[in-house]
């Protein structure tokens, strides 16, 4: 039973599969029929497309040829229009070019520049394609006319906007640069060129530079005289201000202030001069009596006044030269700012160098003049000779400003000027020493401090203020370099160099003082040298120069103190002649003989005579320093009173004369009192 069912199930499945197979065969037949139909359709389409291609391809070729012909025609038309414009440009632009450029605005100028560009383009076309064309001659003539008119308009605009700076404006510019505390200062007249004019000039200059005709010539011809006139006016302004501020001109202005008759003016002048002399003499005496300091030989008021005027003029001359150098730097920077955009940068430095040539020449002349005055001051041992170092310091400080203004070209004239100034400064140092050696001014009759030590201390103090400038300059000198190489252990090279020079000055000064001391008798010579040596030592200590001097001369202070002690001893030895008059070769007997009486008479008479002469002379000696004066008085008492007291007590009461008061004039107390009056200027 199970087998029958199984068989029936299999037969049913077989019958079902057979039916499926028949359906698949039918579907395959239908698919094949459809595929054949599609292939037939595609084949027909392909044939039609081939036929269409054969018909269209010739049409494409014709169209491409027509487009190429059209493009050629358009290019030909444009070329013809371009060429026709070249032939028409001279006619179209003739009126515009002949009228010249309008420089009122940049836009108006640009219209003219565009016209010149068109002419330049036409020039290039004809030079390349038709050099023999008559139209080229017309264009060249019109172009050259336009360029000349542009250059003329540029020069006119430049001249209209170029004015010399006033001296007060330059002074304000210098103050603005040097005063770092000023945030903003309005300098009137420092920029006379408007913004529109600057833009117009730069547009014209840029076109000219691009055309190969940079306006360096007009700039040099117009700006250089303006810069020179600015500096000349400033120099005259400084000179007039310097003269007006000098003591000589102040007194002259004071005397000439009244607008009356010449006779009345003469009387007023005499009265004022006499009053001024009395006031100065009274002030001088008051100062000496209150301080005990009497400086310099007794010169006339007129000599001292003229020397003060000369020193003031020397210093003002140097100061004016330094201010003039600052003005040159300000002018250089102003011209640099003005020239930027007017000439190509590669030509800017050469233009500025040529533009400032006259200014630098004027500055060189003034620096030479100031240095010459300083050297003359050095030859007469004036402290104003140190002012040239202040000038050199200012020139060195201003050098970077001028280098920036002339960059990248080196400021060769300024460098030469700087080297020349340094040479004069070095020479002034040696001439000052030579001036000390050749000084012929004699000392005062009272042996007070000579003017040379006073001037030397003032000069050395003034030099010390410029240590950083003098040190490198001396270091370049072989003599000072060799001297410095022999001194080890000094860190500050500049201070060492100046110390070597101070040593040289003081050595020559000491020698000159000893030579001047030869005019005095022995006692006054010692007083003269003592006064001057002590004044030098105290001045060096008071000014701080002694520490600097110790770098090259470590025992300088001890040396001065030894000299002071030696001069003291020399002065005290001047009493030996007086003491010899009261010295007996052997004691006198108890009973005086005639020759003993005569001997005592001679001794007392000789002492009285020598004492009167010495007192009369030494009362006029001057010792300005109070401590030294009192010390000398004590030393005099110690040297004289003990031997005279012993001689007086031993012999004054002896009956060697019927009239003893004739011979015994002075008691020890009287001698002591008179010694207290020595060196007293008020006596």
TrEMBL record:
Gene Ontology CC: exocyst
Any GO molecular function: phosphatidylinositol-4,5-bisphosphate binding
Keywords annotated in UniProt: Exocytosis, Protein transport, Transport
Species annotation: Pieris macdunnoughi
Function: Component of the exocyst complex involved in the docking of exocytic vesicles with fusion sites on the plasma membrane.
Taxon lineage: Eukaryota, Metazoa, Ecdysozoa, Arthropoda, Hexapoda
Exocyst complex subunit Exo70 C-terminal domain sequence ranges: 390-676
Family: Belongs to the EXO70 family.
GO BP, one annotated term: exocytosis
Protein name: Exocyst complex component 7
């Amino acid at each position: 039973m199970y087998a029958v069912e199984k068989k029936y199930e299999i037969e049913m499945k077989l019958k079902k599969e057979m039916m499926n197979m028949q359906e698949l065969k039918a579907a395959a037949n239908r698919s094949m029929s459809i595929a054949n139909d599609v292939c037939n359709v595609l084949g027909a389409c392909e044939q039609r497309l081939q036929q269409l291609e054969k018909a269209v391809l010739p049409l494409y070729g014709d169209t491409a040829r027509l487009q190429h012909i059209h493009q050629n025609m358009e290019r030909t038309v444009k070329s013809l229009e371009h060429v026709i414009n070249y032939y028409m440009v001279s006619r179209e632009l003739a009126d515009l070019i002949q009228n010249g450029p309008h420089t009122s605005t940049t836009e108006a100028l640009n219209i003219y520049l565009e016209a010149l560009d068109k002419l330049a383009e036409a020039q290039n076309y004809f030079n390349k394609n038709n050099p023999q064309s008559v139209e080229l001659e017309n264009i060249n003539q019109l172009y050259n006319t336009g360029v000349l008119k542009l250059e003329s308009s540029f020069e006119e605009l430049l001249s209209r906007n170029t004015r010399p700076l006033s001296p007060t404006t330059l002074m304000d510019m210098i103050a603005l640069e040097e005063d770092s505390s000023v945030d903003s200062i309005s300098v009137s007249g420092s920029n006379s060129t408007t913004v529109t004019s600057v833009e117009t000039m730069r547009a014209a200059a840029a076109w000219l530079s691009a055309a190969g005709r940079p306006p360096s010539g007009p700039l040099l011809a117009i700006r250089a005289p303006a810069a020179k006139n600015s500096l000349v006016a400033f120099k005259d302004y400084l000179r007039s201000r310097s003269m007006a501020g000098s003591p000589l001109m102040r007194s002259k202005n004071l005397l000439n202030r009244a607008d009356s008759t010449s006779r009345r003016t003469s009387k007023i002048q005499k009265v004022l001069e006499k009053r001024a002399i009395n006031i100065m003499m009274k002030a001088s005496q008051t100062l000496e009596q209150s301080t005990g300091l009497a400086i310099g030989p007794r010169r006339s008021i007129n000599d001292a006044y003229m020397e003060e005027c000369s020193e003031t003029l020397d210093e003002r001359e140097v100061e004016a030269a330094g201010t003039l150098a600052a003005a040159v730097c300000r002018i250089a920077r102003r011209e640099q700012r003005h020239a930027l955009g007017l000439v190509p940068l590669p030509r800017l430095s050469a233009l500025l160098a040529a533009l400032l040539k006259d200014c630098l020449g004027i500055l060189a002349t003034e620096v030479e003049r100031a240095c010459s005055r300083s050297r003359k001051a050095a030859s007469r041992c004036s402290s104003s000779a140190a002012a040239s170092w202040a000038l050199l310091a200012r020139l060195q400080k201003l050098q970077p400003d001028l280098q920036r203004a002339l960059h990248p070209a080196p400021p060769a004239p300024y460098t030469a000027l700087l080297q020349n100034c340094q040479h004069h400064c070095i020479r002034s140092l040696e001439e000052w020493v030579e001036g000390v050696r050749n000084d012929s001014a004699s000392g005062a009759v009272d042996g007070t401090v000579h003017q040379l030590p006073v001037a030397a201390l003032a000069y050395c103090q003034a030099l010390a203020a410029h240590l950083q400038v003098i040190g490198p300059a001396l270091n370049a000198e072989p003599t000072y370099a060799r001297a410095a190489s022999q001194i080890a252990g000094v860190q500050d090279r500049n201070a060492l160099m100046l110390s070597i020079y101070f040593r040289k000055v003081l050595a020559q000064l000491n020698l000159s003082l000893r030579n001047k001391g030869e005019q005095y008798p022995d006692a006054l010579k010692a007083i003269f040298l003592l006064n001057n040596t002590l004044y030098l030592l105290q001045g060096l200590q008071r000014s701080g120069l002694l520490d600097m001097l110790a770098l090259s001369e470590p025992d300088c202070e001890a040396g001065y103190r030894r000299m002071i002690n030696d001069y003291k001893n020399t002065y005290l030895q001047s009493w030996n002649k007086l003491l010899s008059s009261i010295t007996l070769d052997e004691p006198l007997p108890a009973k005086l003989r005639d020759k003993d009486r005569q001997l005592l008479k001679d001794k007392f008479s000789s002492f009285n005579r020598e004492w009167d002469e010495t007192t009369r002379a030494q009362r006029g000696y001057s010792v300005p320093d109070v401590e030294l004066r009192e010390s000398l008085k004590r030393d005099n008492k110690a040297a004289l009173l003990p031997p005279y007291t012993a001689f007086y007590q031993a012999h004054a009461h002896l009956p060697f004369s019927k009239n003893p008061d004739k011979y015994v004039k002075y008691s020890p107390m009287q001698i002591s009192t008179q010694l207290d009056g020595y060196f007293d200027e008020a006596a």
